[in-house]
Specification:
This protein is mostly helical and 192 residues long. It has helices at residues 2-14, 25-30, 35-64, 73-95, 97-103, 114-125, 130-158, 170-184.
Length: 192
Amino acid sequence: MNKILFILLSTILVNNYVFAQFLGICPFLGVSSKLQTATGMGIAVTFVVVISSAVTWCIQTFILTPLGLEYLQTVVFILVIASLVQFVEIVIKKSSPNLYTAMGVFLPLITTNCIVLGVAVLNIQENYNLIETVFSGLGASLGFFLALILMSSLREKLEFADIPKSLQGVPIALISAGLMALAFSGFKGLVG
């Protein structure tokens, strides 16, 4: 139980994939301009990361490693992730067409979001068991979700701020992300 809590706290706060490992920056900056869109993306990424973590662990453990096919890991993991993203895309398109339109090109890009593949590969490298893998995926995706929500809230407030013209848009978003990463570095001593 302590290891599960350690994995969760570590992946959400201390080793946040966006702020500490700098993975998933493209959707982080691209979808974080509105809170509703960021929430939808966070939920979609959470679903894909948790499920793909479990599925890829099972494939690695029961198929690739016993058959000596570890060199196919990246290709197989990408195929699993792409299939899950297609499923999520179909569900969102049917259940919430407005959210589907708002997410635009970023929804299919979950397939290439380096957090999704990074979590799957890092779980194997850390030699986590299935439960630890699922909680690592959950923590990583909740950390990504937290980063999206914080950034989208900040960017909505920045729309009404008096910002010099040369810093408006992406430049102030990058500055804000850097400051948030600095703030998250304060969590380093939380888990040891």
